Amino acid sequence: MTGISGAVAARAQQVADAFTDVTGVALDVRVLLTGRAAMLGLRPPGRISAGGATHLFRSLDGRWCALTLSRPDDIAAVPALVRADSVDADPWQAVETWAAGTDASAIAERARWLGLPVAVLGEAPAAGPRRGALGRKGIPRALAGVVVADLSSMWAGPLCGQLLRQAGATVIKVESAARPDGTRSGPPRFFDWMNHGKLSYAVDFTDTDALAALLGVADVVIEASRPAALARRGLGPDAPTPRTGRVWVRITGHGTVGEQAHRVAFGDDAAVSGGLVVNRSATPAFVGDAIADPLTGLHAAHAVAAAVGHGGGELIEFAMSAVAAMYAPLASVGAEVDAVAPAPTPPGPALGADNDAVLRLIAGRRPC
């Protein structure tokens, strides 16, 4: 069981085929959507996500909510969430007991105030990417030779970067030396799958000059942090020296406007926010494994490839919850697809292994 319907897979395959039309790189969405679960032997999802970090539970007013506790800080915040001095080693009983006596809106408000990834089922409307002009358009081109600065981590952004790399782009994985991509500390096969073939550039994110130098020569930037994270360092889409034809793709959990811009999200809770669940015995269950991540990464890769092919000069913003909502009506249509593991890949780059090569690339691309 994957929890992914044939209709969801078919819709995603249409996007994959459109990417193929632009780049010539053939994709099997079954691998993209089910590959991590297959390679890691993750359990079929139910009210607990395949990876185990996100739970679905009912609120006092009968609505369903999802909460992700994947980071140590998330677990440490549970006593404050449930208004208790302390909780047991397993925090979920305390969360579900508290939620059963609390309306969904109050659950969401308190969790968001504490910076926790939370969702109320079906709260997010379906929406395509937000697009805006970014500098001057350039000459339409293929991805071969395009330089991509991939500032993302985990899954959606790195998948976008990996697909662009397969289409011929030079992808530079940018990580903080102090806080590298969290998937480095997880199963190596998943990190390798997402990041093999990329150059690794480790940099102190307080070194704005170093980051600005890279962003100033990049043709494509992949950003997957909350919008203010780079902007407060003076490194948002409008800040680097304008480069003709640049495409900047921004991936967030819930968007970049108002309160939504400050919300944290992971793939499973973002999917619940978009209503992408399957009903089993009148109870919602998760669809796939953090499915909003690979769906968003696929859509973002296609959007970037198409934008570069039209001359670029665009800011493209994807909200994972809005992408998931586009697939929600298809969640129970058709038989579930089989899980397909990806083929073995070379190892991903060691942290900072390509710093010298990246510095040479930056020097060679700076205007004379």
Low-confidence stretches: none
Q: Distance N terminus to C terminus?
A: 57 Å
Main sheet specs: 7 strands, mixed
Query: How many individual domains?
Result: 2
Global geometry: globular
Average predicted confidence as pLDDT? 94
What class would the helix/strand composition place it in?
alpha/beta
> Given the structure, what is the number of helices?
14
Can you tell me about this structure?
This protein has 368 residues and is an alpha/beta fold. The chain folds into two domains: 6-43 and 125-365, Rossmann fold (3-Layer(aba) Sandwich), CATH 3.40.50; 54-120, no CATH class. Helix content is 37%, strand content 15%. The chain contains 14 helices and twelve strands. The chain has helices at 6-23, 29-40, 72-76, 78-82, 92-100, 104-113, 156-166, 188-195, 208-217, 228-231, 267-273, 292-309, 320-327, 355-365; strands at residues 54-58, 64-68, 118-120, 130-133, 147-150, 170-176, 199-203, 220-223, 247-252, 277-280, 283-286, 314-319. The strands form three sheets. Strands 4-12-9-8-5-6-7 form a seven-stranded mixed sheet, sandwiched between helices. It has a three-stranded antiparallel sheet with strand order 1-2-3, sandwiched between helices. It has a two-stranded antiparallel ribbon with strand order 10-11. α11 packs across α13 and α12 crosses α13 (320-327). The longest helix is centred in the first third of the chain and has 18 residues, at 6-23. It is globular. The mean pLDDT is 94. This is Acyl-CoA transferase. It comes from Mycolicibacterium goodii (Mycobacterium goodii). Keywords: Transferase. GO terms for molecular function: transferase activity. InterPro entries: CoA-transferase_III, CoA-Trfase_fam_III, CoA-Trfase_III_dom_1_sf.
